[in-house]
Batch of 4 targets.
Target 1
Amino acid sequence: MESLIPLMIITSYIYVASLNFVYNTLGMVSEDIKEFVKSIPNNVTIVAATKYVGTEDMLILLNNGINNFGENRVDAFITKHEILKEYKNIKWHFIGHLQRNKAKSVINLIDCLHSLDSLELAKKIDELRSTPLDTFIEVSINLEENKNGVPYYEAEQFIQQIMNYKNIHLVGLMMMAYKDSRNPYDEFIKLKQLRDQLENKLNIKLPYLSMGMSDDYLDAIKAGATHVRLGRILFK
């Protein structure tokens, strides 16, 4: 097992290096990035979804006012975090599904988790984390098969079960709309309504809503999003 660790690190570096080559060759970051950032309301945080983005393009984003980066894959996150560790103003978000057996590798490196979806993962985080972690509960509003998330009708019970975990700081709810949805606003507003109900019923504060991606972020902002997870729209 020990002999595999250096190989994993080398593979990850090759992966990120290849991304840097491809995206720099294509000139990935949009020429209009400054204007785009200005178009987003001040109370909304852009979380750049950097799954397919190399570290050099991430630095371009950083120089244009985007310092919240969201990763989906543990191996790529670890490598990018190591390469960019000197940039202390970066805030690292994990926005993909986090498997319990991989949590140990990242849980004390990230600033925010957007995808808490099980009691088992909550328990693992509480055991491993050294300080309280800002955490969104991923909610399944549409109850899609083969998608992660706590069913919306179980959200109240789920929160009650994890409220005493000292290393989980609940900050809000996260969701994804149907792919190619015709009415994403209607889906997003359901999450906001659920958040409001939970706050009132449980007497808690859930100030943030992580919802909206490149195709539907405007609907998400209209419905009350505080965090939008944007990928393609930031690039050419």
Target 2
Amino acid sequence: MIPLTGFWQTEVVPTLDNRWEDYRLPATDELIGPEARLFLSHFRSGKKKNKTEPEIREIDAVSALYGYGPHFETITKEADVGISQYLREEKYEHDSWQPYTYSWQYGVYDHPGSQGYHGLKAKVDSRFFILDQGGHQLYRTKLYAEKAGTYRLVQEGVVPDLILINKEEVRQPVVRLDQGWHDLLIVYQNIPTASHGLSKMVNDSRNPRQRSMVVIYPEGAPAAKEVDPYASVVASKWFYTPHVPYDPRGGEQGCWYYTFETAPGTCAMELNLNGEILQLWVDGKEIPQRMIKGSQSSTGYLIPIPYTKGVSRVTMRLQPLAGYPGSSVFTKPVKLVCKEGAMQPGDWTQEGVLAFYSGGMRYTKEVGLEFSGDSRIIFDLGTVSATCEVKVNGEEAEFMMRQPYRIDITDFAKQRTNRIEVLVYSTLSNHYQEIPSPYRGKPYAGLIGPVHLELSE
């Protein structure tokens, strides 16, 4: 037996043709390849330029998909806590608040609302506050008034027991605000505990939990309307409207830092941002600002990065626009341009951004063989997820869709150097990991192995 361990040359072979909206709305004339969709983000005070790549520790950061950001902070207090006294004594100012993340387009990740056996049917629940913790649930943030004037509060779902702006109770749906940032606190009292079927990946996922949302508009702004389920984009009713921005760190002097790992062989990346790149590092090496500025266009950035066959670490210091904290600064996934890479046999979803990649991956390895005329050569791929095509020395040997992934390659082999190619196609599970559905499955793909050749007389 000859184990075929170590690194194989790899090449990404995208297959998801999105011209007809089969894989993402709206339709795009592209084959969807490797993309960075999940980011660790962390806010740091001050705007001083970093001399070296900063470390972003998972314990200090918020992990979220593109478009999702910590627009609020939240805390739950026991039902026996007197909320009036709690607020009057301003104890909440020093309490342990947690980031509350959502997307203005897609709502709260993995909490879309009720769905039946056939999914959401293009619906996004516009009530982003999920009231299921028991006791009193509080949400706080800062809102930004672009100019002084009258603003209108719009409530959806459960009516809050209390709304405070700049520590003053709001009793009317219309308020007067000066230009700038303002404190916003929303209180719901005596909320019952509830659960949700989707968390258990139950197909028929009825959602009995109470939900709510408070959105603020400049006076005179058009009323929000539900998005047509036949529209080219799936979104909440707030997404296309001129609501005021929310950001718990609004007005603070500082920047957001982000990090993610690329795919093997990445040589460039395309970014669309609601903000500006201030600094960029790849594997600890800072990319010159002139290269970043030179790659910027009206539609985003296309930045060449140092090429390596393996996975690289990307870290960025960004200045988001007002109201785009955390990963909400990314309006789309970061598209990666890849050349030849290198991976060992195994689950490719463990390799950087490939956790979200569905498509093809070509594995190539040159193997030296010496055998007699009576020898039989069996190529055993071990486990493959999900299908594969095998070529030996440029000739098509077999296409396999199920176990056992074994093939006799005697007729294709030659003495000394042999070139073995395995083109693996994954399922759609990886691509659909960001979709709130019990049908998405577990990400798993690649030439899993163990891979070896067997020579017998």
Target 3
Amino acid sequence: MAGWQNVSYELLPYHAFGKSKYEALGRPYPMGEAALQDGCMKKLQMLLESKNPILNN
């Protein structure tokens, strides 16, 4: 992320706050029971913080 000194970010885990709205409308919730695997957010944070991220793996 060289050259991005003025960029800030915040990783947020997935949430299902909209699920009840779909249920109230009688519609299926398109994300189902989606969830991140254990440790995924930590790995993403480490990738973004590294000086030489390998994004193609």
Target 4
Amino acid sequence: MWKKYRLPQKFAFIETIMRILCIGDSNTYGYDPRSYFGSRYSEDVRWTDLVSGFDVMNWGVNGMTVSQAISYYDDVIERSDYSFVIVMLGGNDLLTGANAEQTCERMAVLLEKVLKAKKPTLLIAPPHFREGEWASSKAEIEESKRLGKMYGELAKGKGCLFADAGSWDIDISYDGVHFSEAGHKTFAEEIEILLSSFFAELRELGEKIANN
């Protein structure tokens, strides 16, 4: 389960039927590591399409880093046709030389922009790397493990929700980075549990307010 922090008061009256904006990299896009040209898994495999009961806007981009996302998503964030945000980035920063501290500092800047939209936001620490073709360095693997704790502290300070996918036992492909088909299925199941729990709490809160 996620680490639950007190929901900021400004989020108390949000609608319970949600359109979710997903900001992420190839594991949100649905990249198929078996492909040679950046192809993606089919809709019946990708976690963003397996999540039921919510309208998911998949804005995952192959190779996206946190530092790139700081400017890339400006127009998307300024849109008003979504009610909830999921951010899962950081793996590509680690793979391109950044450490966990540097990646977390970049994420702090990105979250500042995302939270200006005044939509409830869930920050997810990506699953840990495993030894493979893309993650051959023990240092990269260790940094991916450290990122979860740092993101958790960041989320608490920013007043947003947090989940550490490193604890979800996501199946990773041979390259050590990308979700397998089974990994997408497990990830979708975990996300559904989190979102259903969160929105149930909101409905309960709304009913209490209405009855007072």
